[in-house]
Amino acid sequence: MAEALTRVPLRFVARRLGGAVFVLWAVATLTFFAVRLIPGDPAEAILGGPGSQTSPEALAAVRAEYGLDQPVFVQYLSQLGRLATGDLGRSYALNMDVGALVLSQLGGTLLLAVLSLAVAWLFALLLATWSTGRGRLARQIGSGLEIIAAALPHFWLATTLIVVFSVWWGVLPPISTADARGLVLPVLTLAIPLAGFLGQVMRESLVAALESPFVLSARARGESERGVLWRHALRHAALPAISLSGWAFGSLISGAVIVETIFARPGLGRSLLNAVTVRDVPVVIGVVMVVALVYILMTILTDVASRLADPRTASIRTGAGG
Amino acid sequence: MGLDVIDYWIASNNATAAVPEPSTGETFLKRDNRMPRPGIVRSTPRPLTVALAAGAVALGLALTGCTAGSSVTGNDTPQKGGTLTYASGDAEPTCLDPHVGGNYPQALVSSQFLESLVSLDSDGTVIPWLADSWTVSDDGLTWEFTLRDGVSFTDGTPLDAAAVQANIAHLQDPATGSSTGYLALAKVTGTEAVSDSVVRLTLSQPDSALLESLSQPWLAIESATALERSQDENCAAPVGTGPFVVESWAKQNAITLVRNDDYTSPPADAAHEGAAYLESITWRFIPDSASRYAALQAGEVDVIDNAQPDTIAQASSSDSIVHLDAPRPGASNRIELNSGKAPFDDVAVREAFIRSTDVDAAVSSLFQGSAERSYSALSSVEPLGVSRPDLFEYDPDAAADLLDAAGWAEKDSEGYRTKDGVRLTVVFPVSTNQSIPAEQSLFEQIQATAKETGFDVQLTKLDLSSWYTALGSNAYDAVSAPYTKVGPDVLRILFDSSAIQPAPSGYFANHAQVNDPELDSLLAQANATNDADTRAALYADAQDIVLEGYYILPLYDQQNHFLLGSAVQGARALPTVSTPAFYDAWLKR
């Protein structure tokens, strides 16, 4: 492993970090102005809510407390200043620090995303390996299933799974529970469409790999069919799927907005949805920043993983440096 | 024990049968098929169980399809213990202390652990709760409340006059950020502890709505010791005298409430005494309506709120789910027509709009029988409500004649009416937070039927903040906003001309922008009188002005439907603001 890490040059890491800081700044800026440009007064939403009456005194107090009486650009700069020091600010609506909120909600979302990614890989692998080298019909069934799975919208899949597994069969809970049972349906909802995407990519490269010369030579050395598939061809075929996983992880976190709401799970996706509804700018920025950070980290990780799976990519990506 | 409870239920039932008609009822037209509300509707006809009667009768309700003369078995004796899981579709409160802000989601959960000075019984009469009795001076400016003996908050602080003083001070302190409670106490200028158990409130003007205001969960009495903590601490776990105590709150997941074993202060209309039967309540938030119902069907939760019309229709075919229909008090849900600017500054155009909309047909198809059409400015649970079906009949011919006479005789190429080249446009911002999908569809149908007469109704769906902004900038001709408050004084909030001027925040309640000195005077007199008959007569006159002026198009009561799993017995909705009460509830598993 130590040897493997030395394959990743420092310059590559430094450049990646610089890029990451720029992306985070851009995300913070875009999010701040996007949320503030939508008409609506956060102070109303902080105190208001259906059916409650807001007194001018209470509103003035809230505006002063949260600095909402300042010009927007001043609010932007102070927001940015706080972010630079790692302070995500204080939620308008939740009476708590955004940092504490994100920390308390991040675990649930990460667990959901990691499990979904793992299950998606498992499904994709099983389907790709089962349907490859088994004749045209199997290949067509496999690719048909993948296309269907990839096209399923999360909200539809979630509702269907709830109806089938919770209402008809009554075997799995439709909402989060203290034990792991409540994780099954949300993970399936996120994993099935993703498995479709990953499977499509994996099958294509798997078919290409099985027809390539190194597989022929492995066979010539007397490697079994299973050995050829798992030890040689898959390693090759996994590469595009690994790079896709960085993107996939990001998409899982955005999918969490829907899944956490439908399955009543605590998590960042639900925080984000609530925060957008009530113009809770610090929470929106905080969650989006954390998601961006996770996204960046995952991209770096998948790059590293690609280098480990196939050292050739290092020289290609870093140019002459390799 | 069991027999006492049954006697109580029967007594309540008789009381219910005698729901008084408003004494001034010359204009109160009661529909024959009207069901007393709030009510429990059993999904399928079956003999009454005592436990069901507990919930039903305590609420003052009719049971449809039930045979009278129920059999009582030993199994229906309340059993102690167990955890009830409640799933709320409302937004998760940001603070559990309803003094802070003051909205309905807070009221829902705080009703389980906080209690008020007074409550209401099912026919709207004020009954003792934390206050045993009260007196008011002849000039209406001095109120004295005698507090119940031997009540302590769950942190051990005794309930005394000083506690009530501290609560009023907390509500009136701008730093608390109270909106609902703050406005309700607007006329209270001073408090005084006459003795340990007697507290005196001094008012700047008489306020006939004071008791109704004090019955609301937003004015609940909390421990003075607990109120001295920081607002963050108090928001996380307010301390009251209620049957349950906040044990923990995992944000975006659940609030855990545990039984208060030393509970001594049930309201006068509760079904038993002593501690609650339930061991604990898990209070969850499930925003998605379909998941909420699926969780109830799967037995993961015991009670859900915000049941939607399609779900209620589905539940009616299930024999294990009980429907609790508890409309909120205060205003009916209605469309308010902005009389402050063209085109609705002309009463003929307002009437034409109302006559051109076929609301009855749309309500019955979209709400699948779960909502009943209202013809009143007030909720049907308000005893002083005036209902005027004669004013709201669908009559497109009459609407066309009215528009012709009002100068909107021309039609443009798209079929909309015009006057001096200006199209007859109704800008209608819709809050997607406040209008449920069925209501949004109803507005679309109103748009379609009004188009036949030549109105261009422009519906815009907005989130809450944008919607407030549209109202504050007077960028609307029609709007629908809920308003929950106990008692007819809500009319003053909604229709007094002083409520037209938006506060600096842009918020104002008189969306119809009614500016009528006669109405202002009636509402002020009604609020100032201590005589019940005079008050009723004044409110009846005031409602006639509002309804005959075509300022509003009433739709239905503010919908508030709960679905209960078959294990839940004895739950009811409090007659104050129709929040669920689980003090008498138990689980029959």
The total count of helices of chain A amounts to: 14
The appropriate CATH architecture of the largest domain in chain A is: Orthogonal Bundle
User: Unreliable segments of chain A (pLDDT under 50, ≥5 consecutive)?
Assistant: 316-322
- Helix fraction of chain A, binned, reads over 70%
CATH topology assignment of the largest domain in chain B = D-Maltodextrin-Binding Protein, domain 2
Structural category of chain B is alpha+beta
Largest interface here, residues on each chain?
A-B, 55 and 61 residues
Overview of the molecule:
The complex is a heterodimer of chains A (322) and B (589). Chain A is mainly α and 322 residues long. Chain A has helices at residues 2-5, 10-37, 42-47, 56-66, 72-84, 98-131, 136-151, 154-168, 181-210, 213-220, 225-262, 268-277, 281-309, 312-317. Chain A contains 14 helices and no strands. Chain B is α+β, with helices and mostly antiparallel strands. Helix content of chain B is 29%, strand content 20%. Chain B folds into two domains: 49-326 and 560-587, D-Maltodextrin-Binding Protein, domain 2, CATH 3.40.190; 333-556, Dipeptide-binding Protein, domain 3 (Roll). Residues 1-74 of chain B have low confidence and may be disordered. Chain B is built from 18 helices and 26 strands. In chain B, the strands form eight sheets. In chain B, strands 1-13-22-12-2-11-10-9 form an eight-stranded mixed beta sheet, with helices on both faces. A four-stranded antiparallel beta sheet of chain B has the order 5-6-8-7, covered by helices on one side. The interface between A and B is large, with 55 and 61 residues.
